[in-house]
Structure formats: C-alpha cells, structure tokens
Amino acid sequence: MTVITDALCPFCGCTCDDITVVVEDNKITEVKHACKVGAAKIKGHHRIKAPMMRTDKKGEFREVSYDEAIEAAAKILAGSKRPLMYGWASALCEVHKKGILLAEELGAIIDNTATVCHAPSTLAVHEKGLPSATLGQVKNRADVVVFWGSNPVHAHPRHMGRYSVFAKGFFNEKGRRGRKVIVVDVRKTDTAAMADEYIQLQQGSDYLVISALRAILAGQAAVVPDAVGGVPKEQLVKLVDTLKAAKFGAVFFGMGLTQSISRYKNIDNAISLITELNAFTKYVITPMRGHYNVTGFGNVCAWETGYGTAVDFARGAPYYNPGETAANDVLLRKETDAAMIIAGDAGAHFPADSVRHLARIPVVQIDPYWNPTTEVANVVIPVAICGVEVEGTAYRMDGVSLRYRKLIEPEHPTDIEILEKITERVREIRGD
Amino acid sequence: MTLKVNLITGRTIDQGVTIENKTSSDYQEATAYCELNSNDAGKVGKPGSNIKIKTAHGEVVVKLKENNGNPDGLAFIPMGPWANALVDPDTKGCGMPGFKGIQATIDATNEKVLLMKELIARYK
Fold first, then answer.
1. Residue A4 class from Cβ within 10 Å (0-12 exposed, 13-18 middle, 19+ buried)?
2. Which one of A12, A77, A344, B113 is at 20 to 30 Å from A246 when CA atoms are compared?
3. What radius of gyration, in Å, describes the C-alpha atoms of chain A?
4. Of B15, B67, B82, B94, which to mutate for an interface test with A (greatest number of A Cβ within 10 Å)?
5. Average pLDDT over residues B80-91
C-alpha cells in the first residue's frame, strides 16, 4: 500500500493540491480531501478496454489493435479538407503541444472546450484586459467576494473553502466572518443561499445591471430607473456602497455571463466595472474555469499560435475569428468534413445540430471513457487518464501552472503517444 | 396545460460526479430532468413525472423536479445531451451557442425518457 499526499485533483479549475490518495496493487482504493466530483474522477471506473472501429455509425464497433486504429485515424485526418480537432481541456499541456503540431500539419481548426464555456471571456479580455490576481491573493486579502452567474457550491465545490470565502488568510484571520459575500444570479442557487447579499436579476439582463452599477459608481444614480433587470434601484445603490467599502474585492463569474444574451459583451462590461472600482479601492476579476486544464490549453495555444483557441490553420498560418472558426461555427455551417475529439465530449455538450453534423462525418475519438461522442464515432482510441496515470503540467483557473504527478501506472497508451504516432503516419501518407 | 418558460442549462454537482460515466443510469438521473418552482411544476405534473419540453430547436422528454430557488417562468436543466436537444445553436458571431435564455414550452407526457444511446441515435 502506498499513500500519496499533496496530489493534485484533475477535475475542475480549482486544481486542489492537497489530495491524499491510497494506492494498492496499482489501484486507487481511497481518495481523501477531494470533493465528491474530484474523488469520482480520481477513482475512475469502467474504461474502454481496447480501440474500436466501425464504418457504419449505426452498426456495432469491432475491437482492433492500436496500430490499426492509429492507421485509420491518420487516413481520416490526412484525407480531410477541413478537419476539426476539438476537446483538450481534460488533458495536460504536453498533450496540447502535440495536438497543435498535428493541427498545423493538417491545416486543421483546433478548438477547446472553452468554446462552450469561457471563450467569450477571452474575447472580452482582448478588448479590456483582465485586472486579476492569484487565488492566494484572494485568500489572503479579499474582504468582499462576488459570485456573478456562478455557482461554486456545485461547479467548484472547494473554491469557497480553500480560496475565496471560508479560508483564513494572512490579512483575513477571521475567514468567513471577515468577508462579505455577494451572489448575483437568476435563481436562488445553493451558493446564493450562503451569501450575505443575494441579488436576483431577470435572466439575460446582466449587461443592463452592470451598466446601472457603473452609472451609480460614476455618481450618476439620478439617471438609473427605479428598477433595472428586476433589481430595485435601492438594492443597486447599496451594492455599490458595499463594493466601494472593500479593502480588496474579488469578483468571480461563470456561465451566467458567458452563455446569456450579450455573451462576451457582459464580461466586457464587467471588466469595465472592475477597472472603475479600482479608482476607489483594489478589485480583481477572475473567470471560474471549468475543466482543470482548460486554462492550460489557452496558454499553450497562445504561445504556440498567437491565439488562445478556435485557431484555423487552413491558410498555412494561424487565423482566429470566433463566430467563424469556433467548433460550433464550422459544424453548424456543415463545413467540417472530419473531426478528432480528444479529452472533451462534443457529443454531450454541443447543441443537437452540431452533433447531427458530427454523426454525418468521420469522427476519431481519443478518450478513456464511452460517452455520447463515442456514439457518433468511427474510430475510438482509449488512453491513459492525464493527471492520474500521466504526469505533466496544468494551469489553475488563475493562471498558476502546477505539476501533476503520476499516481498509478497506466494500462493504456498516453494521448501524447497516440498523437505522435498519428502525426508520423499523417506525414507519411502525405509524403512529407 | 402548456407552460411557457425561459430555459437555462448549467452545471450541478451530481452532473459533475457522473460526467465521466455517461452510459450510466446515475448520469441520466443527474442530467435528464427539469427544475421548476412548485407553482410552475404543479401546472404540468407531479415531481418525478415525465414532461415534454419543446423549443424552436428540438424537443426532449425528461423528469420533472421542484426547486423553489427558481423564480416563476424559469426552467433549469443540467448541462448534457438532454438539455442540448433544446438549446439554441446560434453562436451569435462569437462561437458560443445559446445555452441559456431559450423560450420553451412544457407539457405533461406519457412518453418515456430516452436513454443516452437512444437520444444520440436520433441524430444519426
């Protein structure tokens, strides 16, 4: 029996680094300190045992060798005029690097799960920048914490405990009692139920409410109507007073902003509010990133290509224009003629029309588990689980890079090995 | 009666726990339902009964759940293939489909909730 302490959790953007894992006979038998989501991910369960292939997507899969599956995958991708390579967020940065290399080789579009998560936040950051801080700064300093369109009790279960609400910090010895917690949402979530102040706005009115807060902050409360987005003006005026009274304020936002009408403009406006608050006191804003290494993909892709995601290599040089080159854009336009889905599940998390198009084109899936993408795949290549069976680098939601150790020996090849072999075969097929 | 709602989709902790186990009944239980407050829910059925939700983009049958955190007229379905049968695919020029703020109607139904495999088979 081996006990591994201070292991990192490979589930959400909190990347908790205090996990204890008990290993017996190369099996994880116990996971301590993790939330139930993290524990479920680390423990794992029924894996896809061997590579599988089929020609008819309505037919059954037959098990094949890794060589046969890699050969089929390389042929599909090399023969494609407009390949899409999507997923990546549940894999380590070393995998991303290999994937971007293959995308360049193929002239493919490479996009990650941020496309249905925080990619609009990136668009806003292009416009306004991001006044931000590490989670350690928030833990040590924040006395006002705002969650806007974000429900960490469900999506980031240890965020409040480790970093933002309950944690005691260097300048905040009282923990929860030393912080004022504000939740802005469209329904009273379990996070809202724990807040000191809950502001319920009408769904889709975030932009209006942020604009009203900016007007009040600028001393123009007179122009604000009696209610904005269903929120009484008095409540908004009181909120601005609370925000201004902070010594160090931290705003965390989620899909409530990125997926509602106005999309990236909501975040653009929120960043402006934070910038303006910094004229009075210290404020930071941080997106609540979902997958543990979705931030890592954005970083690797940015330093390799100049852009964070939705990068199109068709012109021979990186081109980026979400709305045109994001995964759902090219699927909905029926432009993609083959797809590789890796470390992400488009079948489960894309709109029906996008999945319909995936069901019509050749699909290669690289993943440890059977999921809705498997249902529309032609070639399925099972791999080791990054962060549990594979070591490497991931980026926490605040951009801090952390090194994951291998907890157990893998029984499957790694994503890196599979991508290297596919790239090698693609080059041979194309005669490069 | 037919109930008109504004539909949003999003994460829940049980959706997260079962996300790597999408062929399981646990995943279906964690994601193939729709939450309404008890006032709205009472108009279309009892908690646990089947309801059919329709939008301009698709329709799906899920279980009815009550959550009194929801204001009147707001429906919530955990993210996943059942929710995504209904969402607005339009990426509004920035790559992001409309996963929140979709006009929908809800009716009681005797039709069954499709398994994940059956649901995806509709797209083939």
1. middle
2. A12
3. 23
4. B94
5. 98
Predicted confidence (pLDDT) per residue in A209-244, tens digit: 999 999 999 999 999 999 999 999 999 999 999 999
Exposure b/e, A14-41, CB count within 10 A at least 16 = b: bbbbebebebeeeebeebebbbebbbbb
Residue of B8, B85, B96 lying closest to A186 (CB–CB):
B8
Of A11, A424, A406, the C-alpha closest to B17 is: A11
What is the C-alpha separation between A258 and A285, in angstroms, rounded?
14
Residue B48 contacts A, CB cutoff 8 Å: no
Average pLDDT, chain A: 97
CA-to-CA distance for A219 and A384, rounded, in angstroms? 57
Q: CB–CB of A328 and B89 under 8 A?
A: yes
Q: Domain of residue B27: give its range.
A: 3-121
pTM of the predicted structure, to 2 decimals: 0.97
Q: Are the beta carbons of A323 and B88 separated by less than 8 Å? A: no
From the list B21, B57, B96, the residue facing A120 with the nearest CB is B96
> What whole-number distance in Å separates Cα of residue A85 and Cα of residue A112?
8
ipTM above 0.90, yes or no: yes
In percent, the amount of chain A with pLDDT more than 70 equals 100
The CA-based diameter of chain B, rounded to the nearest angstrom, is 40
Q: Which amino acid is at B70?
A: N
CATH code (residue B89): 2.40.40.20
Give the strand pairing for A379-381 and A392-395: unpaired
Partners of A189 on chain B (C-beta within 8 Å) are: 69
Q: Is residue A103 over pLDDT 80?
A: yes
Q: What is the mean pLDDT of chain B?
A: 98
d(CA A398, CA A81): 37
Count of helices and strands (H, E) across chain A: 17, 21
> Two tokens at A81?
């005029």
The pLDDT tens digits for A333-356 are 999 999 999 999 999 999 999 999
Domains annotated on chain A, with CATH: 2-41 (no CATH), 46-117+292-430 (3.40.50.740), 119-287 (3.40.228.10)
Look at residue A155 and tell me whether its pLDDT is greater than 80.
Answer: yes
Contact (CB<8Å) A120/B94: yes
Tally of domains within chain B:
1
A57 contacts B22? CB cut-off 8 A: no
